[in-house]
Amino acid sequence: MLTLWGRKTSVNVQKPMWLIGELGLAVDRKDVGGAFGGLDTPQYGAMNPHGLVPTLQDGALAMWSPKRCCVTWARSTVNISFRPSRPRAR
Questions:
Q1: What is the reported pTM?
Q2: Is 62 helix (H, G, I), strand (E, B) or coil?
Q3: From the DSSP assignment, how many helices (H) and strands (E) are in the chain?
Q4: pLDDT tens figures, 20-59
């Protein structure tokens, strides 16, 4: 199961949450950042050295760029395309 670290009011958390919802993936979202705090803990720093949200964790793999999270999961999903495969058509 995926774990997404970040508060739901963060626009950078909403980006991967939108795609995860579109792909129908199960996700466990943990509130960190803003009023929730937790970004300065050693545990969070080990996952995301930048200390920002979001962090998307899938087992031992952790990603912290909203764009990287979206691109990785869109490319790894079978039979779904969010962009044309030919560069000129994009």
A1: 0.79
A2: strand
A3: 3, 4
A4: 888 888 899 999 999 999 999 999 999 999 999 999 998 8
* Contact call for residues 30 and 3 (beta carbons, < 8 A): yes
Q: What distances in angstroms separate CA 26 from CA 17, 32, 67, one per listed residue?
A: 10, 19, 19
The amino acid that residue 22 corresponds to is: E
| Sequence-ordered strand ranges (E) for the chain | 2-5, 27-30, 55-58, 61-63
Most distant CA pair in the chain: distance in Å? 45
Cα 42 to chain centroid distance, Å, stands at: 20
Cβ 40 vs Cβ 54: under 8 Å: no
CA distance 78 to 13: 23
